[in-house]
Design a protein that fits this description.
single chain; about 650 residues; mainly alpha
Length: about 650
């Protein structure tokens, strides 16, 4: 039976450390590959093991492994695990196990039938023959392989968890690292770099990693983010006693990024601003693509969308110059997410379509899932339900297998927003409720807050306003944080929807519109105009309603939101405007003679829904559906549901 030489023997120490370092590089390569194309939970375990094995002899490689492990925890939506990894607590535990093995003869994992998985993983193997050691090292560092492990400053860039704005997971890069939006939000890139680097990797999120969420954010009784309350004190010493690990991190850029992320996850946003701003400044001066992508993540966390797009564009140019498709996919992820957050859905769709192609060409299914989720979100405003279902399904298939909580949350939100656009508020509220409410089913902490305004609108339109009141307090804290330029206007709009007093609602709608003027974005402003116009019409303030609805229609048509534009035309007809005045492109067919409620019922029935199902979707009684349906038949001159379905299908073509 073979045993490893004792660490304290004159000839054994170097041999054992060389074997451990070789094993560490192999685990780092395996973990990085899984991070971008496999289960992120498995990736994190491999990366933490790599960090412990490399800590003594390859501290730069250990630093890289720690950051990638934090990326994996971020992608999974596990806030406590992400904080523990950034603090070095996870690797400290594995280092302790390794130290215990360092003083005694240890059999290899193959010889230890009774060993636990962790013990087998950390067991120090017997030093292989010199030629075998050379072959193993060459395999671990071969740049032609799928992922090359980082051995120090010129070999890899770490990938910290994506910032508040990024999507999905980071993937290893063959040239230039960099993370993406959506763990993002997201993961970072790695692999062979364009220039030597000691610490960087990808960045985060689609739209913004919010510091709230499962395990990481305030519940309804939680602390006030705007005042920096709650969460662990990020200034406390780490598991090593004097801070988060000896020499961890050593690079000032990585230290600032790590400190900013820890502050956000610990719900101390005031302490995050300084470090993240320094990340932006250092990356812009440095110019390396992997640092630019981390800067994009930091900018998304800070709500600086212009800086995020600029950094992502520079990283994309470098990746294309180096002909590295993996890095290109990650850069496009940041760009797509930044455009989505800015409300430019057409541009986001363009970047995400290119990103899917690049990710699949590079064999990065996790990155492709993030791009598919963003494509579903872009399609959800256009009224193309088939496209939404296809993109969301593609994202969810990978996300559920690989534990990608952020991509899954984005895809579910896209499906719900498509339901809301088609006049199905009850379906949208049912889907969004678990994602935005407290509990184990809440969505990814970096994304779920973005879906709250949709949930509030859906719940109110479905006749369930009480279900929405609890999450508005969370939205207020998110708006105060300042990472989402649209959040203050959305908060005022949600307040107007829930207001009982008409004067208060009127004031809040006007305030929301003023805030939209400051933040920009046609789509969100048009949604507020539509809701305000509908509210005014029901109070018989028809002239004011006509002006608001007309502005909403122009906004929706400008950004290609076809389903929302159709809703607005229905409200204009109900307000007394001729269909031709509402839109010259709409035919004056039979359906144009229906009221908005009759039209909604007709479309649901044409899709095969029973009267009871229609009543549930519209939050009305079955008797109300029966009454409206009889009027629909009379107005259109049809005698059966089959004839109604045929007419609806013909006029929708």
């Amino acid at each position: 039976m073979r045993t490893a030489p004792r660490a304290r023997s004159p000839h054994g120490r170097d041999a054992v450390r060389s074997a451990a370092e070789t094993r560490g590089h192999a685990e780092l390569a395996r973990g990085r590959r899984q991070l971008y194309d496999g289960p992120v939970g498995d990736a994190r375990e491999s990366l933490l093991l790599a960090a412990s094995l490399l800590a003594a002899d390859a501290p730069d490689g250990a630093e890289t492994a720690r950051l990638f492990a934090a990326d994996a925890a971020w992608a999974a939506g596990d806030v406590p695990a992400c904080l523990a990894t950034l603090d070095g607590a996870d690797t400290a535990a594995r280092a302790s196990d390794y130290a215990a093995l360092d003083d005694a003869p240890v059999r290899t994992g193959a010889d230890r039938d009774d060993a636990s998985p962790l013990t087998r993983a950390t067991a120090v193997p017997a030093p292989p023959p010199p030629d075998a050691t050379a072959r193993a090292a060459a395999t671990a560092t071969d740049p032609g392989r799928d992922v090359a492990p980082a051995t120090g400053p010129g070999h890899a860039e770490p990938g910290p968890p994506a910032g508040a704005a990024g999507p999905g997971n980071r993937e290893p890069r063959l040239s230039g690292g960099g993370g993406g939006p959506e763990s993002r939000l997201s993961g970072g890139g790695a692999g062979r770099e364009l220039r030597p680097s000691s610490d960087e990797g990808g960045g985060s999120d689609v739209r913004e990693p919010g510091p709230y969420g499962r395990g990481g954010g305030p519940d309804r009784r939680g602390p006030d983010w705007s005042r920096g309350e709650g969460g662990p004190d990020v200034r406390e010493p780490g598991p090593y006693g004097g801070g988060p690990g000896p020499g961890w991190p050593r690079d000032p850029f990585v230290r600032d990024y790590r400190d900013g992320m820890r502050a956000l996850l610990a719900r101390r946003p005031g302490e995050a601003v300084g470090p993240l701003r320094r990340v932006l400044e250092q990356a812009w001066a440095d110019g390396r693509p992997e640092r630019l992508l981390r800067a994009a993540a930091a900018a998304l966390l800070l709500g600086d969308l212009h800086a995020a797009r600029s950094a992502g564009a520079r990283a994309l140019a470098a990746a294309r110059n180096a002909e590295c498709t993996a890095s290109e996919a990650r850069a496009l992820e940041y760009l797509a997410y930044g455009e989505l957050r800015a409300g430019r859905h057409a541009q986001a769709r363009h970047h995400a379509e290119e990103g899917v192609r690049a990710a699949l060409a590079a064999g990065r299914r996790n990155t492709a899932a993030s791009h598919h989720a963003m494509l579903a979100l872009a399609a959800s405003i256009e009224g193309d339900t088939a496209a939404v279902a296809g993109y969301a399904g593609a994202a969810l298939r990978t996300a559920r297998r690989h534990g990608l909580a952020q991509a899954a949350t984005l895809a579910e939100w896209a499906i719900a927003r498509a339901d809301l656009a088609r006049g199905r508020p009850l379906d949208a509220a049912d889907r969004l409720g678990p994602l935005v409410g407290p509990g184990p089913r809440r969505g990814h902490f970096a994304v779920w807050m973005l879906a709250v305004p949709c949930f509030v609108e859906a719940a109110v339109l479905a006749g369930q306003p009480d279900d929405a009141r609890g999450v508005v307090a969370d939205l207020a804290q998110w708006a105060a944080f300042g990472a989402d330029p649209h959040a203050p206007a959305q908060l005022a709009r949600c307040g107007a929807l829930l207001a009982v007093d008409d004067a208060e609602a009127d004031d809040l709608y006007l305030r929301a519109l003023a805030l939209h003027d400051a933040s920009g974005g046609d789509f969100e402003r048009a949604r507020t105009e539509l809701l305000y116009g509908r509210w005014l019409r029901r109070r018989r303030r028809l002239r004011e309603a006509r002006a608001r609805l007309g502005a909403a229609l122009v906004g929706f048509e400008r950004c290609g939101a076809g389903a929302w534009a159709a809703q607005t035309r229905g409200e204009l007809r109900a307000n007394g405007a001729a269909s031709g005045a509402a839109s010259g492109s709409e035919p004056a067919g039979g359906l144009s003679r229906l009221t908005p409620q009759q039209l909604r019922i007709a479309r649901h029935v044409a899709e095969g829904a029973t009267n009871r199902e229609v009543a549930q979707r519209l939050a009305v009684s079955t008797r109300t559906v029966d009454y409206h349906l009889r009027n629909v038949f009379a107005v259109l001159g049809v005698r059966s549901r089959v004839e109604l379905a045929r007419m609806v299908d013909q006029e929708s073509r």
